[in-house]
Amino acid sequence: MKYKITASLLKDKMPAFYEVLTNGTVQNQKPDGAEIVSAMRRAKFIRPGIIEWYETCYCPSPLQHERETVYDQYLTNIEAQLVEKTEEIEGEAFWSYLEQV
Q1: Alpha helices, DSSP H only, in the chain?
Q2: Cα–Cα distances in Å, from 68 out to 1, 73, 75, 88?
Q3: Per-residue pLDDT for the chain (101 aa), expressed as one digit of tens each?
Q4: 59, 28, 43, 83: which is closest to 67 by C-alpha?
Q5: How far apart are CA 38 and CA 40, in angstroms?
Q6: How much is the CA Rg of the chain, to the nearest whole Å?
Q7: Which of 10, 15, 35, 43 is the most buried (most CB within 10 A)?
Q8: Where are the domains positioned within the chain?
């Protein structure tokens, strides 16, 4: 299922988030690590401190495993909306921000 996700950053955790996204920790997580890294590369700022992205998830509850293993450590106020199609998200790239923190 495809979801449009909105979340707030835990700003003090962003250096650690970037570290686990780039050192293989998340990428090697089964079954969803590669999708998490890919989703964060696509994420955009829609407002200061708030990012949005699309992600595919097959958990019974949207992003259940992703939240338990990764997202809840670095993001808050996570909201998932089921969508049928994706659209372009306008905003600054979250990944570029992560590279600079």
Answers
A1: 14-22, 33-42, 64-66, 72-74, 94-100
A2: 18, 8, 11, 27
A3: 999 999 999 999 999 999 999 999 999 999 999 999 999 999 999 999 999 999 998 888 899 999 999 999 999 999 999 999 999 999 999 999 999 99
A4: 59
A5: 5
A6: 12
A7: 43
A8: 2-100
